[in-house]
Every structure is written in C-alpha cells, then in structure tokens.
Design a protein that fits this description.
Keywords: Proteasome. It comes from Haloferax mediterranei (strain ATCC 33500 / DSM 1411 / JCM 8866 / NBRC 14739 / NCIMB 2177 / R-4) (Halobacterium mediterranei). This protein has 7 helices and 12 strands. The chain is α/β, with parallel strands linked by helices. The chain has a single domain, classed as Rossmann fold. The protein has an 8-stranded mixed sheet with strand order 1-3-6-7-2-8-11-9, sandwiched between helices. It has a two-stranded antiparallel sheet with strand order 4-5. It has a two-stranded antiparallel ribbon with strand order 10-12. Strand 6 and strand 7 form a beta hairpin.
Length: about 250
Amino acid sequence: MARIRVLADELTDQLDSPTLVEGLPGVGLVGKIAADHLVEEFDMTHYGDAFCDGIPEVAVYQKGDSELHPPVRLYADAEHDLLVLQSDTPIRPEAATELATCLGPWFDELDILPIFLSGIARERSENTPKLYGIGTGDVLDRLEDAGIGRPTETGLVSGPTGALLSNSVAVGRPALGLVVESDPQFPDPEAARIIIKNGLEPLVGFEVPVDDLVDRMSEIRQAKEQLAQRMQQSDEESTQARPIGMYQ
C-alpha cells in the first residue's frame, strides 16, 4: 500500500512550512549529487521512507553499514526547515506519477514547498553552467527575488521530475524548479555546485558549504559513474530539461 513511513516523528512538530529539495537521478545526476551533498553536509536525520507504487522493489545498503533501507528516503533538518527527497535508483516516469500522488497529501499536511532539480544536456568547455528557474503557483516571485533568471528558450522537463512538476501544475500546488546546464554523458558535480550556490542558497536563505563537493569532484564522478551508466543503458526516460523549439 502506498504510504510514507515516518521514522523520526519528533521532528514533524519542529518543521515549519519546510522546503523540500528533490534529488531524483537525472541528466548529469545533478539532483542526486546536490541532494546527497545536503544530507551529508548538514548531517540530516533519516526522517522517513517512501513506499509508493512503481518504486523499484529493491533494498539498499551502504558501505560500512549492514542495515537495509528502501531506495527512496526522506531526510530532515529542523534547524533549517529543510527536507531532502533522496533516491538510490532511477524512477520510471510512470512510477513518478504514483510517487507524486503518494507524496501529495504529505506535502499538503506539512505545507511543504518543493524545489525540483533538473539538468539540461549541454556540451560546454570551461564556461560556468547556466542556470534558470521555473515554477507554478504564487511562489514565482521568489525566483526573481533570489536573482534567478528566466528560461532563454522554450522547453520541457521530462522523466520523473517532469511528472512531479506536472502533478504540481495539475493540483495547483506551488512548486519551484531549477534547471542547470549539465554534462549529457557523465556525472556533473560542477553543475550540482552551481545549482546549490546560485539556485538553492538564495532560495532557502542560508549558506551551503560546497568546498568538499569541489575538492572531491573526481571521487564523486567515479562514485556516481555506475548509476549514470545504468541510466544510459535503460530504456526508461530519465529526468531532464530539453528545448522543444517553436514549431516542434
């Protein structure tokens, strides 16, 4: 049965209209890298698990820890009113629709503002990845207040993050999205750094140290490479933003 299993209920009363950062795997693994970094940097508490229709029925274990966990988990930091949705496995777009339905009542109950993260595949040299913001509802002015630019082309967000954003539009739930230029083939810690510093930081209003993310860039690339290869080999469409052109 679809449900959110809360493990740290004592944190629920400490959260006040929290912000949730979504980190499902997608192009460049930007959301995944950013979400993992937030969980590690703020030593976030394992708040809950998502048992929703369509999520792969696998059990996850971590290096140096024998305890098993479901692949989609929620982490909380009451001090910063922050939640992170973390996934260790790709989510099929049709499963993401079920995930959105599963998470929706919980979003509303805690008055959560979700921020969805996506990469847009771009070949680039040494240029800083460009970032822009999208969203729905009465929170769009927060993008302008944070100095986050608007899209410079017509496009769409597909895959599981696209399904979650589509659900927000359909039910009228306020939501924000951050889209950053990302390596189309390999994990992209630099794009994740940009989305944290130039996107998440001004939106949430507190500093997120990223020195460790930069220093460990090669290590992170190597660690996430296997997941990126699995996603490329999969027939399922992964999260990504892409231009669609005026006449497509």
